[in-house]
Amino acid sequence: MREVLNELKEWTREGEEIAIATVIETWGSSPRPLGSKMLVTRSGKMAGSVSNGCIEGAVYEEAQKVLKSGTPKIAAFGVADDVAFEVGLACGGHIEVFIQPLGPVHRRLISMLDRDEAATLRTNLDDGEAELVKGTPPGSELAKREGEVFVEPFRRPAHLVIIGAIHIAIPLHRLAKLMGYRVTVVDARAKFATRERFPDADDLIVAWPDEAMTKLTVDGSTYVVILTHDPKFDLPALRSVLKQDAGYIGAIGSRKTNQNRFDGLRKEGFTEEQLARVHGPIGLDLGSRGAEETALGILAEITAVRFGGSGAAMKEVRATS
Question: What's the CATH fold of domain 159-307?
Fold first, then answer.
């Protein structure tokens, strides 16, 4: 929904009648994931995509019918091999799209997303009745179909918090911005946390980690990376973030370094379950020790955690699927 949020806000202000088309099922080759959105107005405006081009025309026509009747529907589309090839797919597939008029629940969702609030939308595919609740369940942020109910978690925009403005943090913050994260860099040392070193950061906070974390909203959309490698920074950071529901916690350092941290935190009363949430040593093993490659390995691990990936090579995943 966020990919079409600007159009939704603009068109609702203008009083447009809007139909929302949502990908609810795919088989075979599909360029768009479940939950992908396309908007169609009664006046003929379009935004978003459900297939990157091969069925948008047909979805537009079905959306106009839904706007005229006011009745939601599931539209199924088969994509022939020759058509699929023309739009960049290797082979054809099958897509089901749920098309419904914009309703009061969607308007409330628009307001929540505009305020960067997390929400979960549950839509009954039989009648289009929808339930909106604040917050998202733990686990994957991906949409899924549960029988005749389509569940869409809308977390807050992904937020990477980097504690420790060291050299590795520079390529990490750039990669994260490229991947669409909001990025906050935290360091108590003003000479490190500078705009010259971190030109792409959304926020620079010069403060001790525990103090900085009290100023931030931390939930399942927050990914915290601790790069300081110094107990007087690491331990306050871990104490603070382990008491909150971050989507990812990573701490740089060797196994021995992390073991020493954990031993200290155990003595303070932190549980094994809490400590098991920390990814340390941090990142995926990419076979290199350079700052850029280390940053890539860290962001790759965050991505795997965020979307429920295994972190294994795709040929191994395919071999066992």
Answer: Rossmann fold (3.40.50)
